[in-house]
Design a protein that fits this description.
Blueprint: H1 3-21, H2 40-58, H3 77-96, E1 104-105, E2 116-117, H4 118-140, H5 148-160, H6 186-193
Antiparallel strand pairs: 1-2
């Protein structure tokens, strides 16, 4: 995929998920999510921290663990939404400033043994926010339609994510792939490849 197109599609996925977050109401932070270990507050803490961490990586500071640290969101919904939106716009701006697709990103939440070229790292971020956008939408019982271009770009990335024991580790964003996506729509194929059950509804402790 062309680097500029990847950045454009990533920005769309990030802003789509931020728009869903902006629809939070009082009491929503305790809602369950498709991520069985996380309620919506924990999911939003993870998403906001990931934006900050990837932004730091794009600016050459990814090895610093501080931006990656999850800070539980407060109880005031306008502040939660604003904090998340700020982090989302920061990572979009940081990715836009990367001058070459082979610029190396340090991603200590993935590994400390190597770095990743920008085009691969931004692909990681894109698939995270296509899926986390769905997570938020399902938690809030909202519609979710990323559009065919974004889904077509996300599907090969989802299929390339290693499906092994690492997905069973506590705090993993993805669980082992699920069967049953043959003949399903593109979003359902992405979700099952990454361990989500497309039929999940709030109150079901599955992922």
């Amino acid at each position: 995929m062309a680097f500029d197109r990847l950045r454009r599609l990533n920005a769309r996925a990030v802003r789509d998920s931020a728009e869903l977050v902006s629809r939070l109401s009082p009491g929503d932070l305790a809602r369950p999510t498709p991520c069985a270990e996380w309620d919506l507050a924990a999911l939003l803490g993870h998403m906001t921290a990931q934006h900050r961490g990837f932004a730091a990586a794009a600016l050459g500071r990814g090895q610093d663990l501080a931006p990656w640290a999850v800070r539980p969101p407060g109880a005031r919904i306008p502040e939660v939404v604003a904090d998340h939106r700020s982090a989302a716009e920061a990572v979009i701006a940081a990715f836009a400033a990367v001058d070459a697709p082979d610029r190396q990103f340090a991603l200590p939440e993935f590994t400390t043994d190597r770095t990743f070229p920008a085009i691969q790292a931004i692909g990681f971020h894109l698939i995270d926010y296509v899926v986390h956008g769905w997570d938020v939408a399902r938690s809030l019982d909202l519609a979710y339609d990323p559009g065919p271009e974004l889904l077509a770009a996300a599907l090969p990335i989802a299929r390339a994510v290693p499906d092994g024991d690492a997905r069973l580790a506590p705090g993993s964003s993805f669980k082992p792939g699920l069967p049953g996506a043959e003949g399903a729509g593109v979003l359902a194929q992405i979700l099952t490849a990454l361990g989500r059950a497309p039929e999940w509804r709030a109150g079901e402790a599955v992922r």
